[in-house]
Amino acid sequence: MKKVLIVFGTRPEAIKMAPLIKEFEKNSDVFEMRVCVTAQHREMLDQVLSFFDIKPQYDLDLMKPGQDLYGLTSAIILELKPVLEEFKPDFVFVHGDTTTTMASSISGFYSGAKICHIEAGLRTFNKYAPFPEEINRQITSRVTDFHFAPTEASRNNLIKENIDPKTIIVTGNTVIDALFQSVEKVKREPSKLVKSLDQKLKNSPLLLVTGHRRENHGEGFEQICEALKTIAILRPEIKIVYPVHLNPKVIEPVNRILGKIDNISLIEPLAYHDFIWMMDRAKIIITDSGGVQEEAPSLGKPVLVMRETTERPEAVDAGTVILVGTNKEKITNEALALFDDTIHFEKMSNRHNPYGDGLACGKIVKFLKESVE
Ligand code: UD1
Ligand code: UDP
User: Fold this and answer.
1) Which of 47, 180, 203, 318 is most buried, taking the most CB atoms under 10 A from its CB?
2) Where are the domains of the chain?
3) Could you read off the pLDDT of 68-82 as tens digits, one per residue?
4) Does residue 132 have a cis bond before it (omega within 30 degrees)?
5) From the CA of 289, how far away is ligand 2's center (Å)?
6) CATH 2.30.40.10 fits 2-173+357-372, yes or no
7) pLDDT score recorded for residue 373
């Protein structure tokens, strides 16, 4: 029996690892799997664990309010050591590009386990955008043995870095597995919160917003909030719902600039199923989130991405995403164009998802099974 340790720490990693955990559970005759959460996030992670009914065997409980990268990185590397020494995994699975990803891949490498990287090969080749994620992913790729790339473009990025093509497997993104496994349930069983939000929204066009990227903290967030304020004032009929990320550097400008505007609702982060419902209800989405950019095309929602550069060019090429940066005028103009120009809106709403078919986790576990047989 081969031993698999799945490590993650933040909300998006949890969402994208959840269907993989379910897939390993179906293959318990071949793999003994355990889950370790660093809890780089706490409340936002727990929301996801609860929805997918995941009970980690190890919880490092590392989140500190206003944590910095030095403390978090070193804590993860150190606190994973006893877990690795006790369980002695053959394979350590990490996801994406967070500090948890990078630090646990290094710990796993030190332990002698083979490192399996989900969502491998995303690149901007700009060291500072996204910060520190671009470097987190590059470091993780250096210690990874099996690279599970979501798309051909991500596979090609890895090949350019001289990674052996035999170790790269294109699977699609597991975020689509999670979405497909959840969306029907969400529509069938809307939560009380969602029902009451729906009543408040009536028939108003909905603009859904999320944002958290470190490189946007400060001036970027000021501009983003000013743009949302302008849209809200110019168009009182539009309702803006913004589930605010719990990072204090996000909460402060958002509450200060948008706190007292009638048609803007600032709410706590939504549980995953409520967020999916909200995406489905929205007319357009403005975000700097990686995961939201990947999910929205499946729901046929146009997305404006508040970033200058992206490691997810596929949806831009497919025409469902526009990069708007953090410039106030650009965000405002592009958002209003989508509300006003029906032909432009229809073009961007086409339901094509370049990120996957919902079968990524099956492909990942099948590959691993074949590699151990
Ligand atoms: C982290 C990841 C980022 C990912 C994002 C997803 C790094 C460096 N950043 O950014 O790549 O896109 O998560 O959301 O790995 N907080 C809470 N409760 C929570 C979560 C966060 O209070 O459940 C607050 C805490 O004060 C915490 C702060 O937010 O210290 C920052 O959390 P952190 O994980 O360091 O950064 P994020 O901005 O969330
Ligand atoms: N999400 C959520 N509740 C929210 C906002 C987002 O469950 O209030 C989900 C969303 O569906 C997506 C993921 O969280 O799957 C994205 O997380 P985030 O934007 O924090 O991180 P990123 O994807 O940018 O790393």
Assistant:
1) 47
2) 2-173+357-372, 188-349
3) 999 999 999 999 999
4) yes
5) 7
6) no
7) 77
Ligand 2 test: best mutation among 8, 10, 11, 136, most atoms within 8 Å of CB? 11
The mean per-residue pLDDT over the stretch 75-93 comes to 98
Q: Which distant-in-sequence residues (6+ apart) come within 8 Å of 294 by Cβ? A: 173, 175, 176, 312, 315, 353, 355
Question: Which ligand has the minimum distance to the alpha carbon of residue 175?
Answer: 2
- In this structure, the chain runs to a length of 373
Q: pLDDT for 194-239, tens place per residue?
A: 888 888 898 999 999 999 999 999 999 999 999 999 999 999 999 9
Per the structure block, which two tokens stand in for 140?
């993780």
Query: Is the minimum distance from the CB of 11 to ligand 2 under 6 angstroms?
Result: yes
Instruction: Confirm or reject CATH 3.40.50.2000 for domain 188-349, answering yes or no.
Output: yes
Query: What does the alpha-carbon distance between residue 325 and residue 87 come to, in Å, rounded to a whole number?
Result: 44
pLDDT for 320 equals: 93
In angstroms, the first-to-last Cα distance of the chain is 11
Confidence (pTM): 0.97
Q: Which of 87, 95, 138 is nearest to 113 (CA)?
A: 87
Whole-Å CA distances, 277 to 60, 106, 254, 281:
31, 37, 23, 6
Cβ of 130 less than 6 Å from ligand 1: no
